[in-house]
TrEMBL record:
This is Glycosyltransferase involved in cell wall bisynthesis. SUPFAM superfamilies: UDP-Glycosyltransferase/glycogen phosphorylase (SSF53756). Residues 83-160 form the Glycosyltransferase subfamily 4-like N-terminal domain. Residues 168-322 form the Glycosyl transferase family domain. It holds the Pfam family Glycos_transf_1. Gene3D superfamilies: Glycogen Phosphorylase B.
Length: 347
């Protein structure tokens, strides 16, 4: 078959999130594997586009030639059920789902039902669905009626990176994630407020562009905690490998993760982890490499952090276990090969 592929995505492909990072790495390596990849931006507004934005996005894709192979990022595709229904016989449509849109934090029940129905209807029109975790695969099979044989799991790859040296005095707690409600930075800051009797510093790395309201709330929360001199809201950092390398603990209180690339990156650089047992996080973080607590529980999150801060021997043992687990993670070429094979199988 032809190795021509259209990759369609919402907004700006250079956006610094785990999902867009996955897209960029896979696109590059698919090119190395012989695919001619045409990039099409579907514009702004997703996953909640206006009628005009949705129409414009569909029009861009409907201009493609008959039989074109189209891989659409799920952040947009979940809202494009009408377009998918109209073009499913003419185009070879494959979806890339990082996590189901209905599981996003902060949407009300009516909106959640509407988003689930739209995404379910869109996925029904695909020739295949690529997901980034076994958890998301199970979710789509159970609640979105996607046949298991049409789902391919391609977990994110890892880049070579130095192991964290640790040994900071005071210990440095690192958190990486966009400043959105789902990432739970408010829970982390609330937990840190319960640890003011201990010695530590915390660096929160992540862009505030996607939700400026949440970013402002976090700045106020950090200032009002009285710990502003110990909590650094560092903003966006393009290459985070040096951030992991100089930290002692990785902590992220996500309310949901379809995979959680930053947890895998923390493992790869040998950091002990404090996170929440939600979504795919328990699948990514081995029990001997981190402490996972219920989401939205600052008290439990603080207790887990306290244990690692007060027990350096536990911290070191979990760091060693993290490095061992991280060494077993796939490369980005492994990930792209899975996707390449699945695209070749589409008919």
């Amino acid at each position: 078959m032809s190795r021509n592929l259209v990759f369609a995505y919402p907004g700006d492909i250079e956006t610094r999130t785990g999902g867009y990072g996955y897209d960029r790495r896979v696109i590059t390596i698919l090119g190395d594997l012989g695919w001619a990849v045409e990039l099409i931006s579907l514009g702004e507004g997703f996953p909640n586009p206006s009628a005009a934005q949705l129409e414009a996005a569909g029009r861009r894709l409907s201009e493609l030639d008959d039989g074109a192979l189209v891989l659409v990022d799920g952040l947009a595709f979940g809202a494009m059920d009408e377009w998918a229904r109209h073009e499913a016989k003419r185009l070879k449509i494959v979806a890339l789902v990082h996590h189901p849109l209905a599981l996003e934090t902060g949407i009300d029940e009516d909106r959640k039902r509407a988003v689930l129905a739209s995404e379910k209807a869109a996925l029904a029109q695909t020739r295949g669905v690529i997901v980034t975790s076994q958890t998301t695969a199970a979710e789509l099979a159970a609640h979105y009626a996607v046949p298991e044989e049409r789902i391919v799991v391609a977990i994110p790859g890892m880049d070579p990176a130095p192991l964290a040296a640790g040994g900071n005095d005071p210990p440095l707690i690192l958190s990486i994630g966009t400043l959105t409600r789902r990432k739970g930075h408010d829970v982390l800051i609330a937990a840190l407020g319960r640890l003011r009797d201990l010695s530590w510093t915390c660096r929160i790395v992540g862009s505030g562009i996607l939700d400026p309201g949440v970013a402002s709330e976090l700045e106020r929360q950090a200032a009002q905690s009285g710990l502003g001199d110990r909590i650094d809201l560092a903003g966006q950092i393009d290459d985070t490998r040096t951030e992991y390398a100089r930290a002692d603990i990785f902590a992220l209180a996500s309310r949901y993760e379809g995979y959680g690339m930053v947890f895998a990156e923390a493992l790869a650089q040998g950091l002990p982890i404090v996170g929440c047992a939600t979504g795919a996080v328990p699948d990514v973080v081995p029990e001997n490499a981190g402490l996972l607590v219920p989401p939205d529980d600052p008290e439990a999150f603080a207790a887990a952090l306290r244990r690692l801060l007060e027990e350096p021997e536990t911290r070191i043992a979990m760091a060693d276990a993290a490095a061992i687990a991280g060494a077993k993670l796939p490369s980005w070429r492994d990930t792209a090969m899975i996707i390449s094979d699945s695209l070749e199988a589409v008919s």
